Amino acid sequence: MNQAQSRRLRTNCLLLLPLLVVGTPLLSLAATIPITTATTHFELRGLTTDASVLAGVALHVTVTAMTASGTVDPDYAGTIQFSSSASRALLPANYTFNPSVDRGTKEFLVTFQLPGQWDLLIQDVYTPALSSKVPRFTVTPGPPVRFTVVLDSATFAGTVYTLQVTPVDEAGTPTSYTGQVHFETTVLSARLPSDTDVSFNSEQPTPLLFPVTFFSAAPDPKTLTVTDVRQSLSGRASTVVGAGPFAHVALSTTVPDPTPTCSEATLVLTAEDAWGNPVTEMPTTPVTLCAASGSSATFVRSTLERSMSAKNCVTGNLTSTAQVVWKDTNPEDVEFTVSGVAAKAPLTLHFKAGIPSPQTSNFSFSPSTSEPASLLVRSGLLTAQLTLRDQCGNPATLPADKRLSFAASPPLAVTSPVEDSPGRWTTSVSLPECPADATKTLAVWPLINNEVLRKPSGEQLQRLVLPQCSTVATLSVLSSADSLAAEPGDIVEFQVQVSTEGDLTVTGGVLMLEPQGLTVMGASSSGQALPAKGGGFGLPELRKGSPLTVKVTAQTTTQLHQTVSTQVWVVSPEGTLLTQKERVDFQQKDLGVDVGCGCQTARLPGQLVTWLALLLVASRPWGGLRRLRRGERTDH
Fold this sequence. Notes:
Blueprint: H1 3-31, E1 39-45, E2 52-54, E3 59-67, E4 79-84, E5 95-96, H2 99-102, E6 105-110, E7 116-124, E8 131-140, E9 146-150, E10 154-156, E11 160-168, E12 177-185, E13 190-191, E14 196-200, E15 208-214, E16 222-228, E17 234-242, E18 248-253, E19 259-260, E20 264-272, E21 285-291, E22 298-302, E23 305-310, E24 313-318, E25 321-327, E26 333-339, E27 347-352, E28 362-366, E29 373-376, E30 382-387, E31 404-408, E32 413-414, E33 418-421, E34 424-430, E35 442-448, E36 451-452, E37 463-468, E38 473-477, E39 485-486, E40 491-500, E41 510-516, E42 518-525, E43 528-529, E44 532-533, E45 536-538, E46 548-556, E47 564-571, E48 582-588, E49 592-594, E50 601-603, H3 606-619
Parallel strand pairs: 2-8, 10-17, 19-27, 29-37, 39-48
Antiparallel strand pairs: 1-3, 3-6, 4-5, 4-7, 7-8, 9-11, 11-15, 12-14, 12-16, 13-15, 16-17, 18-20, 20-25, 21-24, 21-26, 22-25, 23-24, 26-27, 28-30, 30-34, 31-35, 32-34, 33-34, 35-36, 35-37, 38-40, 40-46, 41-45, 41-47, 42-43, 42-46, 44-45, 47-48, 49-50
């Protein structure tokens, strides 16, 4: 590059620099330049001066760009904005016309919320003079969509209250309404208006008024709902209903009827209003509670303030509620009355003897008296005994409408209960198998009409069982694996040893076998044959430190390649498993012959081997057949 070219380059850069510095503002300025348009004003359709519009109802307003000659300008591409003197009006956002789509005309939705006289203005954002205005129109309340319901947030039972109901439109403005209203409440007892035909004008100053009275008090809020019978209009209010003024003392009891003799019978004195609601705030009131003269009922204790007892009566101060406990040892009907204050009717308790009581009844196991009682798996047995007594400790029997049963934690098993004597029930408890967790205690409990028996403290009447999963005796195979080999048809023997565990003595045990490929011929111990018994062989008495060795004699099958084994175990005379099961397996010897070369033993076909085996067995007593040995030839 020569010097002249260099100078021209510097000059051009200097000329471009101002454009680079001010380029962005220039572009922004160009964007705000009003677009030349033939539009001179806007035409509005859908809203006119002095029109009446419903509040909350969307209006379809069409804006059209018009030329001076009164024709539509399809090329208008300006941006318009909406404004109104009406507060809370829902107006469209600024909109830029698209000539290729709108062709100078666009429809918008406009919603006015509040009644009154308002105006609406549409104008071009960049050419404010390009505008159109509806100077005056009236918004009236919209159609009713719900009720506003007003009620005191705190009310009292028995007091009449005024319920205020106003139909309103979507914007919450009172509006005209004609229809029939229905009233409902979650208060248990109340006096509400019946279904009522009403008419409301949006111009009237006061809402619809209805009298309501509640009678049931509750600490949590309750609702009152007003609905239109024919239209989907509704509204609700909530209130907390408190008790009315003190009216009387009510007497009740927590004990069943009839009441067991010798048990504590609790009578409850409650201050109430005229509608049976407990009164929590009242002046201290002296009351007297008396049992019928001549009864055996005796006073035990009381929560009355400054209570004093004399003969069959107790006196004290009642603030809201109190308890007085009595007891009667005789079966009789006793009437209790309240005096010194307005009171409801007297209360009669029916004391009855012979009602079973979990508190005094006895539930035990035998022969074990420990807790928990140990129970041996499969062979153990416990007797559960329930002796029913009433609260006085006297024997008690079940009424005809009561049924006693026993239940137990699995895998414990119980039998049907038997009444050995009046009020004395027994059942047998066994453990057929070990539970998954043998360290966890199990339970047995009685039921009356399928309900558990509980003491006054809430404790369930039950007895605990601790599973004992070890076997009574052990069995082991004495014969070594090398000795347990036989040819088809052989007479074989094996020995097992049986011994007891702990200090238990087992009598009447039976050795059981489950042979496969074997025919059991007999069993003996100490040279004495054991008698066949119960599908097995009877064993002599087993004692601690005196293990018993039993020899079993059997014959193997004549079929090759068949499993030859047996399972061995010991059971009680009743069939209860006393030992674990052990398996005795025999290995079959191969029958082979030298084929004449002196170098290889060949296996004979299966049928031929079977016939040879039979001949071998048949010939043994006479020694007429001896087994060929490897290397022994038959041609000399």
